[in-house]
Design goal:
The chain is α+β, with helices and mostly antiparallel strands and 292 residues long. It is 47% helix and 14% strand.
C-alpha cells in the first residue's frame, strides 16, 4: 500500500510540475491536512487531503513567500503551485524535529539555545504586519466565533454521560475561562508550534526550522504558546521571558486554556466517533491537561 501511494504521488508530482527534475526515491509523510512526498533535500510536494486544506494552499504559498527573511528561522520556500488541485511545491526544511524526548535529553546549554531560537522566531513572526497576512488571505479569528465554537464542544460533552472526574475537568475549564481577560491585540500566529514542526540542524549554529503553517491565523498571540507545553511548563516560561511582543496579565493562563480547549474539542469529537482517539483516551487526555 505504501509503495503504491509513493508511486502515485510521484506520478502526480511529475504531472503537476513537469519541468521539475525530481531526484531520489521519495519519502511519504501524512498529517491531518496534507500528504507530502520529499525528494531529497531539493523538493517537497504537499497534496491537500480535504477541501479546507485545498482552499488554504494558495494562502500558504503566498504567506510563506512573504515571510522569507522576516524571521530568523528556516521556512519552506514555495516554488510553484498547481491551482486546480491545491498541490504546492516547496524547497523543504531539512534537519530533524526537536521531539519532546530529544529535548529532555539535552543539556542545559542545548535547552537554552533552543529556547532562545524559539523565542526569537515567535517575536519576529508576531511583529509581521497583519496587513501583509490579510493580503495573502489569512482571516482574523473572531473572539465571538471562538467562544461559540468552544461552547459547541462543551454542549456535546454536557449531553453525554461522563464520569465525575471528567465532568469536574470540564467544570474547572469553564471557571477558568470566565476569569481571564485579554487586552493585547491580535497578531499573526503559526498556531501549532508542536514538537513535530520545530526542526534543528546538525550544528547549534544552524537556525531553527519551522514547518506546517496550515493552522496560521490572525489571533491572540498567547495561543502561540499553547503547543509549546509539550516541552514542559518551565520551557514555556523561559520562552515567555525572552518574548518581546505585547503581553498582559493573563497571557500565560490563556495559553494554558487554549491547550485545554484542544482537549475539549477532541473529547467532543470522540463522543461523535469522529476523533483519532478512543473515547477513553480522549477523557484521559482532558483530565491530564486540566491538571497541568
Amino acid at each position: 500500500m505504501k509503495h503504491f501511494l509513493k508511486n502515485r504521488l510521484t506520478a502526480l508530482a511529475k504531472e503537476y510540475f513537469p519541468s521539475v527534475p525530481f531526484h531520489g526515491k521519495g519519502m511519504v509523510a501524512s498529517g491531518w491536512d496534507y500528504t507530502a512526498i520529499l525528494f531529497g533535500d531539493e523538493h517537497v510536494v504537499r497534496f491537500p487531503k480535504h477541501g479546507d486544506a485545498k482552499k488554504r494552499a494558495a494562502v500558504d504559498v503566498c504567506l510563506l513567500a512573504a515571510l522569507q527573511g522576516r524571521t530568523p528561522a528556516r521556512l519552506q520556500v514555495p516554488l510553484a503551485a498547481h491551482a486546480a488541485s491545491g498541490t504546492a511545491l516547496y524547497v523543504p526544511v531539512m534537519g530533524r524535529p526537536m521531539t519532546a524526548i530529544r529535548f529532555r535529553k539535552l543539556g542545559e546549554g542545548g535547552r537554552l539555545d533552543f529556547t532562545k531560537k524559539v523565542a526569537a522566531f515567535i517575536t519576529a513572526l508576531h511583529a509581521v504586519p497583519v496587513s501583509l497576512a490579510k493580503k495573502c488571505g489569512v482571516q482574523p479569528e473572531s473572539i465571538r466565533s471562538r467562544v461559540a465554537r468552544v461552547n459547541g464542544y462543551l454542549s456535546v460533552c454536557d449531553k453525554a454521560p461522563l464520569e465525575s472526574v471528567v465532568r469536574g475537568a470540564l467544570t474547572a475549564f469553564r471557571a477558568r475561562r470566565k476569569s481571564v481577560t485579554r487586552t493585547v491585540a491580535s497578531t499573526l500566529v503559526h498556531g501549532d508550534l508542536s514538537d513535530e514542526h520545530l526542526y534543528v540542524g546538525k550544528s547549534s549554529k544552524d537556525p531553527l526550522g519551522v514547518i506546517d503553517f496550515s493552522d496560521l491565523s490572525i489571533d491572540d498571540p498567547a495561543r502561540e504558546f499553547s503547543s509549546l507545553f509539550c516541552y514542559g511548563e518551565q520551557f514555556v516560561s523561559r520562552v515567555f521571558s525572552r518574548y518581546d511582543g505585547a503581553v498582559d496579565k493573563d497571557f500565560l493562563e490563556r495559553a494554558k486554556l487554549y491547550r485545554i480547549e484542544e482537549a475539549v474539542k477532541i473529547l467532543s469529537l470522540a463522543l461523535k466517533d469522529k476523533s483519532s482517539m478512543t473515547l477513553r483516551e480522549a477523557k484521559d487526555f482532558l483530565v491530564e491537561r486540566t491538571k497541568k
